[in-house]
Amino acid sequence: METYAALIAIDWADRQHAVSLYDVSTGKRERLTVKHTPEALSEWMLGLRRRFNGQSLAVCLEQTRGPLIYFLLQYDFLVLYPINPVTLAKYRQAFSLALGKDDPSDADYLLDLLQHHRSRLQAWRPDDEQTRTLRFLVEQRRRLVNDRTRFSNRLTALLKGYFPQVLDWFEDIRTVLVCDFLERWPTLAAVQKAKPTTVEKFLRAHHSVGLALNQRRLAEIKTALPLTTDGAVLSSSILAVKVLVTQMKTAIAAIAEYDRNIEAVCQTHADYQLFQALPGAGPVYAARLTAALGSDRSRWPTADNLLRFSGIAPVIERSGQHQWIRYRYFCPKFFRQSFHEYAAESIKHSFWARAYYGMQCAKGKGHHAAVRALAFKWIRIIWKCWQTHTPYDEVSYLKELRKKASPLLNFAANNPN
């Protein structure tokens, strides 16, 4: 186990941090508070470097990202041990039944974990800057996608109340075409006043050039009847549509900007080609999987390590003569989501993945349980490709399944659909 000149525990807060420090040479503990300002934190770090002659110090804290983590990453003499907040809460409850929370006491509990249970904790070694940049970009992009979905749902509900024809004329309302259409003609009466040639010219300008589709739209615009003529409903809906369309266009433009930046980072990442070769990965999932695994092969020396960290591996619980398997609650949610969503997408593109999903459903599993089982398989495959720097090849994998006389192929043969 690595030795340190001092062990430090920090209970993070917005304004100031409660700190407990154990000096290994003297065996004494100290308590202090540090203001959350760049100047105060920098002065404290410089003091620690001088006091311990630049020797390695272990730092325990509750988070793996955020302003304090970003600050601490600047100092090469610090080794970080992030603790799951649930771990600290359970440890606190073991010694305090009052369930109260106190920052200095929490710092002491963190220090206890670091001092007495460090062999069971894992030091956090940050990925290279390129991988961390990609990780931030893909997570931020996903939040924007969630925003776009939220705006889309609200816009759909609004249109159903006064202008439902738009939902029939356009397959997907999460587009600039629909946003511009509603900005120009927010009601049925408004678009019916426009000349058909004007509407057709608008559609073509937005690259909607399907002749039959545009003719159907123009015919339905001419004959459509309004759902309501209530002035109160129409006036308030027009304003709401204007706001939602503006938000939607902003989200669409932001996602496109993130896509360009993600692509630029991916093209220079050494491992991107490995994930790009996965069936159905595309630019989105290839980038997310690249960011998830990174470039440090020592982080997950076995596939089981990766399975447990991702939350895809289930948990086995035992009590007396009873045993059951349950979903893993505590894990990096976006990390798990990336593998789960990729597995669902792979069903459309991979022969064996589609067969395996069908086999799981045939056993009575629901959709998400079947996808998790498929993700479990994919993680083992992806880990092997990543560790050996070998791009995935569907044909080679199917040959291996045939050599092993896998029942999966028999199921696929008997269930072609």
The overall average pLDDT, rounded, is 91
If you compute it from the alpha carbons, what radius of gyration comes out, rounded to the nearest whole angstrom? 28 Å
The largest sheet has its strands arranged as: 3-2-1-4-5
Q: What count of helical segments does DSSP give?
A: 19
Total beta strand runs: 7
Assembly state of the chains shown = single chain
Instruction: Give the overall form.
Output: globular
Provide the helix percentage.
55-70%
Query: Into how many domains do the coordinates divide?
Result: 3
End-to-end distance: 54 Å
Which structural class do you get from the secondary structure elements? alpha/beta
Strand content: 5-15%
- Biggest pleated sheet: 5 strands, mixed
Order of helices and strands: EEEHEHEHHHHHHHHHHHHEEHHHHH
- Low-confidence segments: none
Structure write-up:
The chain has 3 domains: 6-126, Ribonuclease H-like superfamily/Ribonuclease H (Nucleotidyltransferase, domain 5), CATH 3.30.420; 131-266, Helix Hairpins (Orthogonal Bundle), CATH 1.10.287; 272-414, no CATH class. It is 60% helix and 10% strand. It has helices at residues 38-51, 67-72, 85-95, 103-116, 129-162, 165-169, 176-184, 188-193, 196-205, 211-223, 231-266, 272-276, 282-293, 303-310, 333-346, 351-362, 367-388, 394-403, 407-414, and strands spanning 6-11, 16-23, 28-35, 57-61, 78-82, 315-319, 322-326. The chain has a 5-stranded mixed sheet with strand order 3-2-1-4-5, with helices on both faces. The mean pLDDT is 91.
Secondary-structure topology with pairs:
Blueprint: E1 6-11, E2 16-23, E3 28-35, H1 38-51, E4 57-61, H2 67-72, E5 78-82, H3 85-95, H4 103-116, H5 129-162, H6 165-169, H7 176-184, H8 188-193, H9 196-205, H10 211-223, H11 231-266, H12 272-276, H13 282-293, H14 303-310, E6 315-319, E7 322-326, H15 333-346, H16 351-362, H17 367-388, H18 394-403, H19 407-414
Parallel strand pairs: 1-4, 4-5
Antiparallel strand pairs: 1-2, 2-3, 6-7
Helix pairs in contact: 5-11, 5-13, 7-11, 11-13, 13-15, 14-17, 15-17, 16-17, 16-19
